[in-house]
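pasting for ref
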Amino acid sequence: MRGAVIAERGRLALPASGIAPADRRASGRAVSAQTTVGRCATMSSMAEGASARAKSGEDAAELRKESYTMALYVAVCLLAALLALPEAARHHLIGLIWGITIGLAAAHFFAFKISARLIGAGKVQARDIEAAGAQLVGAAVVAALASVTILVLPAHLEYHAAEFGLSGFIAVSGYAVARRGGAGRLRATVYGLVVLTLATAIAVVKNVLAGH
């Protein structure tokens, strides 16, 4: 009888670790669940970080596009102005270049700000301010490039220097577009010349329509 009682006590006794098998399994499941939750949180954090980096990259690309667009626009307009400029008025090219650039940039900024308020329910968003700043930078870079070419070359070459600087900027932009698209150097050069030809044609048509 005593042996039976001892055997029964041994059967009901806790394991050496002090934790019943059922409790041990429950504890294991809890640890596994915590590990899974931790992994999910880590993956979610990594996904959010990747999404934020992608959004930042898209914003930067959009700002560059705004800057390049404004720069090319100003370059074509300046080229049109130089082509229509009488020979007697070619003595103050730097003032003319910066006057046209500032006028174009101011008009564009005004229109951009009004349209931003129209879309933004009367408010200008931070990204709109950044885009406007990128546009102004693009315009200033083109005007500075044309000014540098004028200052570097002799006075009797100022006019042609300004035309060369603007034409070179447009052609190089076309070349860069083709290269980024995977074209070889020769094909990219041809593409750049085509872009320059089209830009010059646009400038000439602009002058013809304006009566110059």
